[in-house]
Design a protein that fits this description.
about 375 residues, alpha/beta, Elongation Factor Tu (Ef-tu), domain 3, Rossmann fold, Ubiquitin-like (UB roll), 6-stranded antiparallel beta sheet, 6-stranded parallel beta sheet, binds flavin-adenine dinucleotide, Riboflavin_synthase-like_b-brl, flavoprotein, iron-sulfur, iron
Length: about 375
């Protein structure tokens, strides 16, 4: 462990290895009701290398066994000695709630990443429009912090939506940035008034009437949107209704995007059924080489589901092909993989697949 007070120059440190890190909590801040920022440093002497807007996946050591959760880095890579995630515990939350209840200063966690391509760095533009709601503000905050540090004159129109005034995450910092970045135009849109705080700003939901008021030249901007799926759908539909060219629209999903229903992994057989009567002809043998387990994938199952059914553990977090946590090497066979950007073309060429969104087309051997 490094001395907390010891300053090291960047060139005296090695960059973050992009596969696995152990992080140590160095700061915890209450941002809004049920929202906290956890700041980490590396327990090795490394600096953090990522693009603003990218995410990491944390392994949370629950008593029942570890679970994985993916969080955007709300920090900026322009300050590379620490990273931060800003997390919101929804009702019924298991993983985030565990963090709230168990992560204190000095706690250590395994982390994987960074990953993701939701970053303005991949889409250089003269003008940006950031639209976010709830915890979807995190990638925008990372990008805005980076712009403030490295390109403070950038033209950014930022529309942030929240249910109530007190639920606006990073409000004070955003207002400060608004006073320091000449090109930043900041708008908050609130759904409900609150007894806790008076509100004299914009109210309502974002729509084709309000957007031109908040960002009059939105058609000229590269748009980044993040928030709950119904919110992003509304933004997409609203932009499309105005004739906006959707090639300039980018979004990040924190949850599973709407997909066709997947058949139940293992349909229960009647008690007296002959196991041989199961559709064996359609099941595909899958060998997990490191575990030395012969499994099978039933029709409609993913490699991840087949692994779980065979007692083989493959780490997974988002389970919709975005976070990349379940990346495994395919030693033989072919799969149909429908990912959401969690794997690079180079990795696919090297034989890697994402187990959560790959279905076998023939016998498979997986290095796991
Ligand atoms: C790329 C990416 C970036 C993200 N960035 C952020 C971020 O910056 N900040 C942030 O807060 N989140 C972020 N998320 C979301 C985060 O990864 C978690 O999905 C989210 O926080 C919920 O996890 P949880 O442990 O809090 O809740 P979970 O325990 O996963 O539960 C979520 C909800 O599902 C319900 N639920 C859980 N299990 C079941 C079940 N078996 N059956 C029925 N319902 C169930 C719970 O009741 C709860 O309402 C991101 C996700 C992705 C993919």
């Amino acid at each position: 462990m490094t001395d907390p007070g010891l300053y090291r120059h960047l060139d005296e440190m090695v960059p973050w290895n992009d596969r696995l890190q152990v992080l140590e909590v160095i700061g915890i801040v209450d941002e809004a009701p049920e929202v906290k920022t956890f700041t980490f440093r590396s327990d090795a002497q490394t600096w953090f290398r990522y693009k603003p807007g990218q995410f990491i996946t944390l392994e949370l050591p629950l008593d029942d066994g570890p679970i994985m959760r993916t969080y955007t880095l709300s920090s900026s890579p322009s300050r590379p000695f620490s990273i931060a995630v800003t997390v919101k515990a929804q009702p019924g939350s298991v993983g985030t709630r565990w963090m709230f209840d168990n992560l204190g200063i000095g706690a250590r966690l395994k982390a994987f990443g960074p990953g993701g391509d939701f970053t303005h760095h991949n889409h250089p533009a003269a003008k940006y429009l950031f639209i976010s709601a709830g915890s979807g503000i995190t990638p925008m905050m990372s990008m805005l912090r980076w712009l403030n540090d490295c390109a403070p004159g950038t033209d950014v129109s930022f529309v942030n939506c929240a249910r109530r005034p007190e639920e606006i995450i990073f409000r004070k910092e955003l207002e400060l940035l608004g006073s320091r970045m000449p090109g930043l135009s900041l708008s908050f849109l609130i759904e409900e008034r609150s007894s806790r705080e008076s509100w004299f700003g914009h109210m309502g939901r974002i729509d084709a009437v309000r957007l031109p008021l908040l960002s009059p030249d939105f058609r000229e901007r590269e748009v980044f949107c993040c928030g709950p799926e119904p919110f992003m759908r509304a933004v997409r539909e609203m932009l499309q209704s105005t004739g906006f060219d959707m090639a300039f629209y980018h979004q990040e999903s924190f949850g599973v995007p709407p997909v066709e229903p997947v058949p139940a992994p293992f349909p229960e057989l009647p008690a007296n059924a002959d196991a041989d009567a199961a559709p064996a002809a359609a099941a595909v043998p899958v060998r997990f080489s490191l575990s030395d387990v012969e499994g099978e994938c039933l029709p409609g199952q993913t490699v991840l589901q087949a692994a779980r059914a065979s007692g083989v553990r493959i780490s997974a977090a988002c389970e919709f092909g975005l976070c990349g946590t379940c990346k495994v090497r395919k030693l033989s066979g072919e799969v149909e993989m429908n990912h959401n950007g969690g794997i690079l073309d180079d990795e696919i060429a090297e034989g890697f697949i994402l187990a959560c969104c790959s279905k076998p087309l023939c016998d498979l051997e997986i290095e796991s």
